[in-house]
Amino acid sequence: MKHTISVLVENQAGVLSKVASLFSRRGFNIDSLAVGETEDPAISRMTIVADGSDYTVEQIEKQLNKVIPVIKVKTLQEGKYISRMLSLFKVSVPADKRAEIMKIAEVMGAKVLDVTKTTITLEFCDTVERTETLQALLEPYGIKEMARTGAIAIEKGSSTVRK
Amino acid sequence: MISGARIMVECLEAEGVNVIFGYPGAAICPFYDALLDSSIRHILVRQEQNAGHAANGYARISGRPGVCVVTSGPGATNLVTAVASAYMDSIPIVAITGQVQSELIGRDVFQEADITGACEPFTKHSYLVKRTEDLPRIIKEAFYIASTGRPGPVLIDVPVDIQTNEIKGYKYPEAVDIIGYKPSLKGNGLQIKRACEAITAAKRPVICAGGGVFSSKAEHALLDFARKADIPVVNTLMGIGVIPSDDRLCLGMLGTHGVKMANEAIQGADLLLLCGARVGDRSMASPNQVAKRTKIIHIDVDPAEIGKNMQANIPIVGDLCSVLSQMYERIEPLEHSEWIEKCRSRSQLDMGEEDEGKYINPKRFMRLLSETAADDAILVADVGQNQIWSANCFKIRNGRFLTSGGMGTMGYSVPASVGAWTAADGRQVIAVCGDGSFQMQMMELGTIRQHGIKNKIIVMNNTKLGMVRELQDKNYGGRHSGVDLSGSPDFNLLAQAYGIPHARIDSMGEARSAINQMLSTDGPFLLECIVSPAEGSFV
What is the pTM assigned to this prediction? Predict the structure, then answer.
């Protein structure tokens, strides 16, 4: 089962490698990891999507908490958070199919960034699930290249990870 | 103006460090230069790994972090095994490594190694110092992190220019404030209440005590609680000596190489109180089986240990000493004589024949040694058969038993005994090793000689890597591969070459007088015991 874990860390050199190496040496699999600054420049947030049983996730949380520059770890509850990832798709498309692709983009809410005689490049910012849907719709045309960020997430309502 | 090196030395002094173990090199030379003007005693080991083990032995006896200092590159990488050993056994050491100049880092210059990277999986925390101004804070934090919560090794990698840089002045911080590091100490009151109720309701409770008892300095709290609640105690390898072995509550070591009395108590228990024990695979081969039929209460300062290897019904996170004291206050006196007698009636140790002719019986020898040694003697066992003979047959009363339990690092005992001796304040310190492990550390005879260390070394010589040989007998149809140690030097001649008194015995008839001679010698002593290659470790 997929879990989204929000990790607040001190913004200092080496933290990313400490966290990443912990995952590999404890045998935990990371689906994606995204890091960025928070409202407090001294603190960064890592959003980690990991696959594993409840036991694994509990262990991940506990082991992450032992990393000294890790301030707070929270596994976000299903249905209680908003998550987004950004993707760029470069799709092969002959001129006669261009309208079809643009229709798909419109329906899905993807943005056309670039068009050439043989390709079209789309930007899509949505959940992991919807991104996979768009990917499936584009696949028959031939995806030449795809780039994705890891998912980032924030809780619904007024609660925050910190408090 | 004051140099980084000078600041390092002064900060160590401010931490109360009076001895460090190390081996210099170019990248740590500024520190070594500043050390000359300090009262800190430096013990020059003969290989960097041994500086780490010595700091480990020192920490375990003094109860304060041990300090080791080595140079960059190979000096630092040689230290890795010692850092990993300390990590696995939760021993507080502060390891300081020299590093190449800051601006050259990453260019693969002479003696450059990414040691914070290499040690990442084995350190509680590590620092690569970027500015001389940061040194006081980092050193303060390093000692704090190493010694609080679940103790462990902390590495400080200091580029040589950080050591030579001069700054205007500094103030050694009085306290630390690390936003993400606040170890919890007191146990949750509700959980303690639940635990005490469960213990009161139990018919056949057993305490399993691990190395965490020593980390938390909870020996007395444990004994007081066990006596008030009248619960027998089994110990892990790391927990040997938590309560005196002649106490009626002491059932001995559990696990693959443990004693029947302890293992059967675990099998028969209806409640298991885990105290600072992480349920390692050698202690409990199938923890889930035990958990199915037994109520588990797990006390540990590291929340990650609870539920890692065994599911707990009542987890209690907190400092063991404080939790046990809280439980002591709450629990009513209990009585389990019948259960304890039942546990104690299980089969006793099989010590083998009294006299096997031209060999030393290592089990009987260890028993004899413990009867002859001082009440508070410190025994440092190496890894292999010698470790198991020591663990099961040497009776710890008010002394300590040190060994590399988690990592199982051969070559631990002699350097660790050097460190232990420097902290032991005149107590007897005896290292026990095999002829295999001794040859991984015998260069330390030079350290012992040079620094006037008065430890005793026992070499159990069976001309084999006995533990592996035993494994090959058991699991590989007796096909012996790579375990023959013929070609070893004459260990007595070797001791003689270092000017260290020595003796060799090959019959039990000589054992008592040899032990007396060793213990009464004012100085180091090497006693070689000729053991049958066929001797096994199980008791």
Answer: 0.94
> Options 1.10.10.10, 3.40.50.720, 3.30.1330.60, 3.40.50.1220; which CATH number does B189-344 get?
3.40.50.1220
Which residues does A contribute to its contact with B (CB < 8 Å)?
A: 9-10, 13-14, 17-18, 21, 25, 55, 58-59, 62-63, 65-72
* Contacts with B338 (C-beta within 8 Å, 6 or more apart), sequence order: none
Chain-chain contact of B125 with A70 (C-beta, under 8 angstroms):
no
Residue B347: what pLDDT?
65
Which class does domain B2-167 fall in? alpha beta
Closest CA to B403 of B377, B433, B428: B433
The Cα–Cα gap between B54 and B48 comes to: 10
Q: Which of A68, A71, A163 to mutate to test the interface with B (most CBs of B within 10 A)?
A: A68
pLDDT per residue as tens digits for the range B474-486: 999 999 999 999 9
**CB pairs < 8 Å spanning A and B:** 38
Query: Can you point out the beta strands (E) in B224-307?
Result: 233-235, 250-253, 271-275, 295-300
Tell me if domain B2-167 and domain B189-344 are identical in fold: yes
In chain B, domain spans: 2-167, 189-344, 362-530
CA distance A8 to chain B (A): 9
- B positions 291-310 inside 8 Å of A (CB): 302-304, 307-308
Work out the mean pLDDT of chain B and round it to a whole number. Answer: 95
The residue-averaged pLDDT of A35-51 equals 94
State residue A71's pLDDT score: 95
Average pLDDT value for residue range B15-24: 98
Q: Domain B362-530 carries which CATH code? A: 3.40.50.970
Which of A52-61, B346-355, B510-519 is least confident? B346-355
Instruction: Output A155-159 pairs: Cβ under 8 A, ≥24 positions apart.
Output: A155/A76, A155/A80, A155/A81, A155/A82, A156/A80, A156/A81, A156/A82, A157/A80
Chain B, nearest residue to A61 by Cα: B304
ipTM score of the complex?
Answer: 0.86
Distance from the B151 Cα atom to the nearest Cα atom in chain A, whole angstroms:
12
Query: Of all residues in chain B, what percent carry a pLDDT higher than 90?
Result: 91
User: What residues of B are in contact with residue A68 (Cβ under 8 Å)?
Assistant: 124-125, 145, 178, 180-181
Q: Taking chain A, what is the end-to-end CA distance rounded to the nearest angstrom? A: 26
Put simply, the answer to whether A66 touches B302 (Cβ < 8 Å) is yes
**pLDDT band (50, 70, 90) for residue B283:** confident
**pLDDT tens-digit profile of B391-429?**
999 999 999 999 999 999 999 999 999 999 999 999 999
Looking at residue B355, its pLDDT comes to: 64
Q: What are phi and psi of B383, to 5 degrees?
A: -125, 135
